Amino acid sequence: MSSSVSPLAPKTVPDMPVIAGVRLATAEAGIRYKNRTDVLLAVMDKGTAVAGVFTKSKCPSAPVEWCRAKLKGGKARALVVNSGNANAFTGKTGRASTALTAKIAAKAVGCSESEIFLASTGVIGEPLDATKFDGVLGRLAETAEPGDYLAAAKAIMTTDTFPKVATATVKLGKARVTINGMAKGAGMIAPDMATMLSFIFTDAPIAPAALQALLKAGVEDTFNAVTIDGDTSTSDTLLAFATGAAAEHGAPKISRASDPRLKAFVKAFNQVLANLAEQVARDGEGARKLVEIIVEGAKTKASARKIAMSIANSPLVKTAIAGEDANWGRVVMAVGKAGEPADRDKLSISFNGIRVAKNGARDPSYDEAQVSDAMKAPEIAIKVSLGLGKGRDRVLTCDLTKEYVAINGDYRS
Amino acid sequence: MSSSVSPLAPKTVPDMPVIAGVRLATAEAGIRYKNRTDVLLAVMDKGTAVAGVFTKSKCPSAPVEWCRAKLKGGKARALVVNSGNANAFTGKTGRASTALTAKIAAKAVGCSESEIFLASTGVIGEPLDATKFDGVLGRLAETAEPGDYLAAAKAIMTTDTFPKVATATVKLGKARVTINGMAKGAGMIAPDMATMLSFIFTDAPIAPAALQALLKAGVEDTFNAVTIDGDTSTSDTLLAFATGAAAEHGAPKISRASDPRLKAFVKAFNQVLANLAEQVARDGEGARKLVEIIVEGAKTKASARKIAMSIANSPLVKTAIAGEDANWGRVVMAVGKAGEPADRDKLSISFNGIRVAKNGARDPSYDEAQVSDAMKAPEIAIKVSLGLGKGRDRVLTCDLTKEYVAINGDYRS
């Protein structure tokens, strides 16, 4: 969909190792796009645990409703993702479409329909013709191989300008286990929750309930701390799959998230989530600047989060950054509108380490030329010190550019 | 500041009658702008009642703090408004600046400083040099005349592309009374509350407490139902002044807002507020479309308001309208993210009277060409029927264009 890669894209793409028990395949089903892959099938070995977190939208898509219902079983054998059509706001047709997709996939993989997980992204409100999966999924199941995560990440893109993958390898007990992840953004991105599609795969033997607890805790400071435009998709889906294959070479079976043997794993797992979430911000529609908002000295972490989000979602702050203007007045505005405890006369604000405001007024040492120069950087950190308490939080966003308006003003045309 | 008048500007400007007991004067104080007026002085006769509502920002400007404190007296003799500098986030200097302005104004008018009301709009975070008012206000007090409301409205503009005035004449008892109003927008506009500067003048004899009650009730469905960008200014101020001069030709003195003799007055008063609020939306920064969001069938009016605001503040809905795209999927998204009761399968959505979605799916009679044609209109009404209850509400907003980004990306340069 997009013509040029975001200037904020990571300079290198990691080599993605295989994960025992996971096989991938992609195809061109012609759902909406031409001459590109738009379907991903991931086939998992028997015994794979699954966990998920989803949009908090009151009008979720049919695939989100499907996954929520199937998550209760805790087991997964396959994931089917399509791009180009979100199968959202498609009513009974949408439910029928997910059921048919699951039926086709279950037959292709040889499992129960309740072990099939589905995600769709793209246009909302258009019926998704699931018959297009007939044949395609069977062929994909036959050809699926342990491997090309980058190709998989490409098949799930919509307005993304680059595929998003991340990986980590870590010790669990005495065995090495691997965590691979992929994500797609890049608009309609706000927390509550996963704010896009993302899929995590690991060979660690972790029971469904423990995996669910890890995922829920992990998103809080990663995917839930990213916002592009404050808009929450009907389709936000983050699924994690643990095949357990590493048990064969000695990884201990984990049944509780609080298991102390998980410590290194949790850290690596959260790093993969954080890496993917940051890539989503780096690919925000039309983004030219990655913006980190740090709020400290708030009454609580929750209060710091609300204020950080108020700043991150302010069109006036975001357009000022696009204009390379250290407009701290708009940051004050956004602090004020958050409705959280704040004392104007204790506020300090800095842009990329240069303090521009102190004790509720312009910093006496403020040097316009120095600040203007700092604002030319592709990564901008705005730090707000409230001076009230010890609450601290951090969120990521991007600037608001004319390109965002262009991308979203003719998405369907 | 802006180069061309909004295409949504009213085609005609009303003749503004004089209001007995109110005299106006404007000047070029050179606070920020060159070759235009930037100071307004309104002088009111003794006995004028005052009421006000202000931003809910936790970091209000110095003039807002000043007005809030002085409102307790209930009496006003003068209003001083400057454009170009908001005197917000200016710390102790800001407080000193408001005190000095009030002192100069009180001397010029010959009243107590507690009867002076102040409002400032423009850049945040820059010290306001109140000594610039010295001399200017004295001259203005001498030359003030019962009159030119349009000139007054021009003096308080910032990024506005046209001055905003409204008037109504109505019977109070057997006497005719007049209500004049002016407002300025045009960005950093979200409710909670007045979301800009607006001043209402009337010769009706209404006591301060009654006037305050009228104003508070009146803004709910007018200024509080307008949003441009979801950003709330630190300076939002709406003040109402009632000189009481109409008592001389028989208007009854009103001490309670519930007085039945006020019925026609309240209607006219609210119409003036609604007219000004709509003009603010029509002059939203970069706006090319006036957008009315009507939500019906919600559980309650408050629930309908939240959903309407979620739609009105969605960047994705607003960019779609800029692109003349009846993207009802994004409307569903915004309904979903509001967090209010909604049932996807009961939702119906129409654009300018053409139903595009019904019972949670595309309307079977949907005709893309017909809808595309309707979206070319400069005024777009989006109606969402939830089918849950009798809650109904309406808010006004505008589209989000590249011009909004341009205006706000180089506001200071």
TrEMBL record, chains A, B:
It comes from the Bacteria. The record marks A194, T195 as: Cleavage. The keyword Amino-acid biosynthesis applies. It is found in: Cytoplasm. Substrate binds at T158, K184, T195, E285, N408, S413. Its EC number is 2.3.1.35, 2.3.1.1. The record marks T121, G122 as: Involved in the stabilization of negative charge on the oxyanion by the formation of the oxyanion hole. Keywords: Acyltransferase, Amino-acid biosynthesis, Arginine biosynthesis, Autocatalytic cleavage, Cytoplasm, Multifunctional enzyme, Transferase. CDD domains: OAT. It catalyses: L-glutamate + acetyl-CoA = N-acetyl-L-glutamate + CoA + H(+); N(2)-acetyl-L-ornithine + L-glutamate = N-acetyl-L-glutamate + L-ornithine. Pathway: Amino-acid biosynthesis; L-arginine biosynthesis; N(2)-acetyl-L-ornithine from L-glutamate: step 1/4; Amino-acid biosynthesis; L-arginine biosynthesis; L-ornithine and N-acetyl-L-glutamate from L-glutamate and N(2)-acetyl-L-ornithine (cyclic): step 1/1. The active site is at T195 (nucleophile). GO terms for cellular component: cytoplasm. One of its GO terms (biological process) is L-arginine biosynthetic process. Pfam families: ArgJ (PF01960). Catalyzes two activities which are involved in the cyclic version of arginine biosynthesis: the synthesis of N-acetylglutamate from glutamate and acetyl-CoA as the acetyl donor, and of ornithine by transacetylation between N(2)-acetylornithine and glutamate. Belongs to the ArgJ family. Heterotetramer of two alpha and two beta chains. This is Arginine biosynthesis bifunctional protein ArgJ.
